[in-house]
């Protein structure tokens, strides 16, 4: 089965972001650094950067991220790309718990509350600049 999986790009904070997301969503986090593969970076001071990180949550979600060494072009997260965490009524408390963790240092917060269309809905931009949308419907 084909899956659509967010893959986030960071300059140097992929590890910190993935650890935040693990604390919000739970799950198993695997990280491979550029230093794990000799010759992957020009500057050995960047060997600790995340070449590939993958968070697999208990609910079956997968979120991936990587850092961008100075020798590679970097594209910062944009407002046009949003990580959406959605679910049904059985997911309401899990989504609330995730939001509580992600709120630390967040900006552009639209509180997670009942919306006119009947769902619980909210938004924020986390401390790493990644926009999130939350929607829990009936």
Explain this structure.
There is one protein chain. The chain is of the alpha/beta class and 138 residues long. The protein has 2 domains: 7-67, 2,3-Dihydroxybiphenyl 1,2-Dioxygenase, domain 1; 83-136, 2,3-Dihydroxybiphenyl 1,2-Dioxygenase, domain 1 (Roll), CATH 3.10.180.10. Helix content is 17%, strand content 35%. A hairpin with a 5-residue loop joins strand 3 and strand 4. The mean pLDDT is 92.
| Distance from first to last alpha carbon | 26 Å
CATH topology of the largest domain: 2,3-Dihydroxybiphenyl 1,2-Dioxygenase, domain 1
Name of the top-level CATH class of the largest domain: Alpha Beta
Percent of residues in helical segments?
10-25%
Listing every helix as H and every strand as E from the N terminus to the C terminus, the arrangement reads EHEEEEHEEE
Strand order of the largest sheet: 1-4-3-2
Nearest-integer average pLDDT: 92
Q: What would a concise description of this structure say?
A:
With 138 residues, the protein is of the alpha/beta class.
Topology diagram in text:
Layout: E1 7-10, H1 14-25, E2 28-33, E3 50-56, E4 62-67, E5 83-87, H2 92-102, E6 107-114, E7 120-125, E8 131-136
Keywords:
2,3-Dihydroxybiphenyl 1,2-Dioxygenase, domain 1; four-stranded mixed sheet; 138 residues; alpha/beta; 2 helices; Glyas_Fos-R_dOase_dom; Glyas_Bleomycin-R_OHBP_Dase
């Amino acid at each position: 089965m084909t899956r659509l999986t967010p893959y986030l790009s960071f300059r140097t904070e992929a590890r910190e972001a993935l650890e935040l997301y693990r604390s919000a969503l739970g799950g198993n986090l695997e990280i491979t650094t550029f230093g794990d593969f000799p010759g992957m970076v020009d500057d050995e001071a960047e060997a600790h950067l995340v070449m590939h990180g993958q968070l697999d949550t208990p609910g079956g979600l997968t979120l991936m991220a990587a850092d961008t060494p100075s020798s590679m072009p970097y594209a910062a997260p944009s407002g046009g790309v949003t990580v959406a965490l959605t679910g049904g009524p059985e997911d309401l408390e899990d989504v609330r718990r995730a939001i509580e963790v992600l709120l630390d240092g967040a900006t552009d917060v639209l509180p997670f509350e009942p919306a006119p269309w009947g769902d619980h809905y909210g938004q924020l931009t986390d401390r790493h600049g990644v926009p999130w949308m939350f929607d829990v419907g009936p």
